Every structure is written in structure tokens, then in C-alpha cells.
Amino acid sequence: MLFTVGKYLKYHLKAGTVHDVHSPFVYDLLNNVIKDKTPFYGFDLVESLRSKHQLDRKIINITDLGTGKKERKERICDIVNKAVKPKKYSHLLFRLANRFQSENILEFGTSLGLTTLYLSLPRKDSKVITIEGSPEISEIAKENFRRLKRNNIELITGEFDKVLPEVLQKLSRLDLVYFDGNHRKEPTLSYFEKCLNHATEDSIFIFDDIHWSQEMNEAWNIIKENSSVTLTIDLFQLGLVFFRKGIPKQHFTLRF
User: Fold this and answer.
1) CB-based contacts of 4: which residues, under 8 Å, 6+ apart?
2) Are 75 and 56 in contact (CB under 8 A)?
């Protein structure tokens, strides 16, 4: 916790605004995507599910592979409050998928499926594959997908290392990847390297909780320096990674 607070204070002091951006691509992205507040017709449907789960005190078993822990029990309402991305960031995920019209999407860490739904909304013909390690959480997510009739989502339950090769065969090209299922350095870098082989110049990789711990902070710094990465944007909670050619390597820390 102290590490995160310290990193946030540094982020707050360093983070720039639109006036500090001299890249036309980033300037446009900040103004028309990151800062955009335009509502979308599907937002209320997803948020109604969030509200429903926030009132659900049912206790379920959780297999938590992302932090190195194993089995535990937790109320569904607590999962929503602790593990599901807030509306502000969920809307941003939608806007990014919509802006780049991402067709092949991969998500590490489904949780209750709310962020998955946001990623699936921009295109009915997109292919969204999401991986979840906890069977009971997977069942709740699947029911949420059925409720909103999102037939473009495929949920695979299992350990990331075991199922990822199968997933990458199904999605030979990765347009958008959301890494939110493991908050340790080595697994994060391993999944990044494997997905990198399926990235294109137009792909976007999104990393959650990049300053959550020393390990995640180190992983983020290594990813930024990767030779294939040309542009990164640090929004504190999320890190955006681009591979666009023909531009100088740049790193931005922006207020969100």
C-alpha cells in the first residue's frame, strides 16, 4: 500500500496535460479517447450488472492465481469493489477498443466479466477471448454474457500458462490485449513476450495496475524499453503500449 501511495504522489507531480503533449497521435488520443465522456447505449446495461453484483452477498470459492495465492472464499459484492475495474476505466477500455476498431481481443483475467463486456461492445463481429482461473467466477461471468447476449465472447477457464498456446492459435493476430490476470513480474513479462509474437503495428496492449507493487513497476519499465514498443502512456492505473512504426520512441505520463 505504501509503495502504491508513493508512486501515485510521484505520478501526480509528473503527469502532464494536453498542453504538455507534442505528439499529434497522443494529442488526438488524449482529447478524443482518453478524456472523452460521451455515453454509449450499452454502458447502462453493463452498469446494471455491476449494481446487481454490488448487492450480492453470496460467498463463493475463488482460485486466485494472479497474486500467487490459492483458494479463498469471498462475497461477490466484495469482488466487485476490489477486483473489478471502476466505471471510469471500463469506459476507457470501451473507447480504446472502439477507436481502433479492435477485431481480435484477448483479456487475461475475466473476473465477473464486466470489462469483457465493455471490450465486446464496439463491434458485434469482434472475437473476444477472455481467460479466467477461477471456475465459480467464470460461471457468473458466463451468465452475464448470456444476459447481454454477447455472442462474440469466448471464456476459457484455466491457468494462463496452460491455455494461452491454444488461445493464441485461435487469435493469430492480436489487435488488443488487456493484461489483468496476474500481478507478478515474471508472469506478466512472459505473457507479454508470447503475445508480442502476434502483435501488429496497429495493436494496443493495455496493462492493469502497473504501479500496484515493486514487481509490477519493474515489469512496466522493462516493457517500455522493449525494442518493439514505440510509444507508451502511463495513466497510473493503466499502461497503454503501442507499436506504431515511423515515430520516435516516446513515453508519456498523463493525467486521467
Assistant:
1) 211, 212, 213
2) yes
pLDDT the model gives residue 211: 94
CA gap 55, 52 in Å, rounded? 6
Say what the alpha-carbon torsion angle 215, 199, 127, 56 is, to the nearest 10 degrees.
Answer: 10
> What is the mean predicted confidence (pLDDT) over 197-225?
96
| Residues 6+ away with beta carbon under 8 Å from 119 | 93, 94, 97, 102, 105, 107, 128, 176, 178
Closest to 255 (Cα-Cα) out of 80, 88, 90, 98: 88
Query: Are 65 and 83 within 8 A, CB to CB?
Result: no
250-253 vs 153-157, strand pairing mode: unpaired
Rounded Cα distance, 95 and 98, in Å: 5
Query: Is residue 1 very low, low, confident or very high in pLDDT (cuts 50, 70, 90)?
Result: low
